[in-house]
Amino acid sequence: MDVLPLIFMGIMGLSLLLYVILDGYDLGIGMLLPLATAEQKDTMIASIGPFWDANETWLVLGVGVLLIAFPSAHGLVLSTLYVPVTVMLVGLILRGVSFDFRVKADVRQKRMWNRAFALGSLIASCAQGWMLGSYVTGLQSGPLNLAFAALIAVTLPALYLVLGAGWLLLKTEGELFEKAARWGRSAMLPMGVALLAVSVATPLVSPTIAAKWFTLPNFIGLMPIPIATLIAFLAVFWVLQRNSTGRLSHSWLVLAGTVLMCVMAALGLAYSLYPYVVLDRLTVWDAAAAHNSLQFVLVGVVLVLPFTLIYTAFVYHLFRGKVRNLTYGEHPAPPAPP
Fold first, then answer.
1. Span 99-112, mean pLDDT?
2. Which residues, 6+ apart, have CB-to-CB distance to 190 below 8 Å?
3. d(CA 242, CA 334)
4. What does the mean pLDDT of the chain come to?
5. pLDDT at 247
6. Which residues sit opposite 283 in a β-bridge?
7. CA 320, 324, 330, 333 torsion: positive or negative?
8. How confident is the model at residue 280 (pLDDT cuts 50, 70, 90)?
9. Residue 301 falls within a domain, yes or no?
């Protein structure tokens, strides 16, 4: 059995998981932006300023691996999901333009760009949820599959909101810290309900996934995944429910627990899909490029992936701690008239 397609499938899965976690929190902060004061908006933007653009690198890497390593699957996925992919790109472009323009705009225009950044974040999040829901159902277009895609489109923004609140708890203090705790509490219930609904609906829309999860001994062996997810959810809920006075005890657990839920969901999805790239339609080996091509590309990936991981870790280490006020891009004040 050729293991190279499995290696590339693992790299693609890791890239997309890192994207969901890393870009997820800054998409969540974007959606939370309208709930903050003007000064707090600057602090929220400053908390993601050094990271947000690089976070999207993982999406580029994941899609790039799909294109190079699994060209037939790339054509099928992107042609089927042409509309939501286009909508997502519109949202991401709107975010990028708004992020840069808001820093240089006057007060009235700044409000407009803040709204545009929040709207772009919401559009991109919902589009990504729709794409994930469609992918899990094998890119089928039946009424039940479309309803499932819509369900994921609602779930993913709720997850991003909790990730965003968790990031703000790590990076901010005072009133904004307390607001982040309240926002996280408010988002936990819809996220929990949506995740439960997704867990119930997934085997209903996919007999293949139902057979892999609800047969013995698979059911027993897979129990650590839902149990770990439930424990992480309860830990996040417990921390957020505690009274916050600007310094919530164990606040790091909010982000860590939500990340753990993402990892468990990714493991469950990987098990559910294997050995398919597109469920019930293309296996990993059917969709893979020629062996020689994969060997050639692997050399580049081996060089690029560690560098990207090291750079990401370095940036997060360099800008660790509480955030400072946003200052980049501001023009110096004009000299006072004589």
1. 82
2. 154, 158
3. 47
4. 87
5. 55
6. 276
7. negative
8. confident
9. yes
Domain CATH for 255: 1.20.1630
Domain count for the chain:
1
Assigned domain for 335 exists: no
Beta strands 276-278 and 282-283: pairing type? antiparallel
- Whether 215 maps to a domain, the answer reads yes
Is the pLDDT score of 246 beyond 70?
no
Residue 182 structural domain:
4-318
- Would you say residue 133 has pLDDT above 60? yes
Contacts of 210 (CB under 8 A, 6+ apart): 203, 204
At 24, the amino acid letter reads G
Q: Has residue 149 been placed in a domain?
A: yes
Q: Which two tokens stand for residue 91?
A: 């949202």
Spatial distance between the Cα atoms of 185 and 178, rounded to a whole number of angstroms: 11
Average confidence (pLDDT) over 180-187: 91
| Number of Cβ within a 10 Å radius of residue 75 | 13
Q: What is the pTM of this model?
A: 0.89
3-class DSSP state for residue 297?
helix
pLDDT at 32: 95
pLDDT band of 330, cuts 50, 70, 90: very low
| Preceding amide of 275 cis, omega within 30 | yes
Half-sphere exposure of 47 (CA within 13 A, CB side): 30
For residue 270, give both structure tokens: 């990987």
Specify the pLDDT at position 295. Answer: 92
